[in-house]
Here is the input.
Amino acid sequence: MNILDFAKGKNMQGYQLGFLTTVFLVGFMGIVVLPFYIYLFGAGIFWEYLGVFICMIILWNVQAFRLMRYSRTSEGIISLPGFFSVRFDEKTGFIRVLSSSEIIVISLVVAGLLIKEMNLILSRVFGKDVDAYVFIILMITALHIGKFGMEILARTAVIKAVLFFTTILGIGIFMYFDVGIYQLIRNMMQTNITGSVSEYLNIMFHSGRLLTVNDIISLASVGLLASGMPFLLACFFTVTEAESISTGKKVMLVYSLLLFLTCAMVGGISRGYLYEQKLTDSLSVYIYYLYRRLAEGGFCGGMLGNIYLVSMIFAILTGIEGTISVVTTVIFEDILKKGRLVRIKKRQEEWVLLTVSILAGVSIYILSRCIRFISVDMILVFLSTLGCSISPTVFMALVWKRMNRYGCVAGLMTGLLGVPVFKYVQLFDVSGIKVSLCEVLGLNTIVPSMIISVIMIIVVSLLTKKESKKIEDQFVEVRNRLVD
Here is the structure.
């Protein structure tokens, strides 16, 4: 298998593309997290997923087609660093190295946080250390990604999608009939949960107050991060015709809506179903409560509880698979091969890909051990950092002809630094207390980080030299769909 087969798969169908991108994006957030959010915070979390839907519509209707065309007209782009290099005809390799470094480091950290969370959940459920089992699962995942690449992800996407949906739907129906509508409503009314998320990343603590406009903006803006996920964007390099994207878009819209509604239903019902266990703000404790409560429901409940655990493992591993795939592709294509660090012969590519994939898996496990005491909300911090760097830069590169390589570097760097600066640097004095810009505005870091990233792209591009006519002509050709 060569690098193109690894990164692009073989004959991926449009429906597979739709399911693959959706289970990657909403697998962990949908199956694992969304029911817990609804259970703890109430229906206000709807705004976050509305932002995801809006972002996905823009992504599939604008960016997807143009990324496909760039890949098709430029001899097979297979990674975002490769796209930046082609888009701006960048010969020095600086943009490729900069974007590659961001993608590799942040993606591995996010994957490490996901593995840490899976370890915590399984340890809570089984009441013992599961480190060895988690390591084995991670290595198996790395091995099959290293051996089959995008092809195995495409082939299993439909199976995962069906598993996620049927599991969560089955749990919802079982809880409804196990307790009964009258008792469920009675229990839910007595939980006295009236508020929602009040501050960005304050997701593990109940605020006890109603949503404000700032809360809605912050929640909806989280959805914008979807267009900054490297694996999700790289999926559009795998197709060669517009029909596949159109089919995938329809599959994505229908499936993601059904999954969201089902997960939200389970989260709402679980308030009443877990009433006797009392309210908890811990994700792992919530899952443990739900698993144990299902196990008390006889054979059907116990079976559903076990299937629920399996589904959660697959949901988390879906994010890990995407991470290993994109990290392996970027390391091989943009660091080793195009970076000319080593000479890789065609017959050696398969073994190099497998080795890099395994090393990526080992790195994820080591990181999960090093960041064991970091809370789950840090997943969103790192996702925000990566998303605010990649999302505005890719979007502007696809819609604005005047953007140049210097604007690209400005966008990548500004988005990367914006999240930690706006969140942690306390520059303002409010009633004698030093606070950050986000605390002053009452918004999360995503909004100001993306705004300042777009501004810097525009300013730097206008102040520096235009790209060549060849590059601008290629942009116009891609934009105008002359190659469809």
User: Anything to note?
Assistant: The beta strands are 426-430, 433-436. The chain is about 75% helix and 0% strand. The two ends are 28 Å apart (CA to CA). Confidence is low (pLDDT under 50) at residues 193-208.
